[in-house]
Design a protein that fits this description.
By secondary structure, the protein is an alpha+beta fold. About 55% of the residues lie in helices and about 20% in strands. The strands form two sheets. Strands 3, 4, 5, 6, 7, 8 and 9 form a seven-stranded antiparallel sheet that branches. A two-stranded antiparallel sheet has the order 1-2.
Length: about 230
């Protein structure tokens, strides 16, 4: 198997985790294919960072899994997801511990279902599942901000109505009412879009942090000895 290579953004994250905010900034060579863990550790030694801390930071980064491309509507984030490979399948007891962590993180009870080798916890459009793959098990976390999608649709509708109604009023010869009509529908469109513009970036960042934390927790839990049934 080819050795794992870390891209530029991943390297920055690893050194950030390894130094916990330390101001030391190692000079990194330009490598088109990324850097291996051994190469990162050698660079760390040169600037006084313990290689073990770099290895631990890389393990934490790997445990977070891979975020899928953010789903967007009108350029705004409305869907976040992440997939992480698990060391093994959870026992019933470990699944209960995971569900407890899901409930604590999202502050809601949610519902659990089990179908064959697939276990899922969900609430609304938020779904977290442990599912089998060709090579083992993986944790999949997905969420969609459905009300934001609806609000963006309403904003687009009101924007279209502003143009249509303005045209109708102008065609009727009531030019003095064109601007007030367009302002009314256009204002509703801007208000709807503005509400999403303010709240969605923060919502997406929060969900990404929550998913990272849960992915790390799941990998750590399942890296140890199996919990008794």
């Amino acid at each position: 198997m080819a050795e794992r290579r870390y891209g530029e953004d991943e390297v920055r994250e690893i050194f950030s985790l390894a130094t916990t905010g330390d101001a030391r900034d190692p000079s990194l060579p330009a490598e088109a294919d990324g850097l291996t863990l051994d190469e990162l550790q050698r660079i760390a030694e040169q600037v006084g960072i313990e290689p073990a801390r770099v290895a631990h930071a890389a393990a934490r980064l790997d445990a977070r899994g891979s975020p899928a491309p953010v789903r967007r509507s009108f350029g705004l984030p409305i869907g976040v997801s992440r997939v992480v490979d698990l060391p093994r399948a959870p026992t019933d007891r470990e699944w209960e511990l995971l569900v407890s962590q899901f409930r604590t993180t999202f502050e809601t009870q949610g519902e659990t279902t089990t179908t064959g080798g697939l276990r899922e916890w969900s609430v609304g459009s938020l779904h977290i599942s442990v599912e089998p793959t060709e090579h083992g098990e993986q944790l999949r976390l997905t969420t969609l901000k459905e009300d934001a999608l609806i609000l963006n649709g309403f904003s687009a509708l009101m924007g279209s109505m502003s143009v249509i109604m303005g045209t109708v009023v102008a065609t009727a010869g009531k030019t003095g009412k064109v601007l007030p009509v367009m302002a009314m529908f256009g204002g509703m469109a801007l208000f709807s879009f503005g509400a999403n513009l303010v709240r969605l970036p923060g919502w997406a960042r929060k969900r990404e942090r929550q998913m990272e934390t849960l992915a790390e927790y799941a990998v750590k839990l399942l890296s140890g000895p199996q919990a008794p049934e």
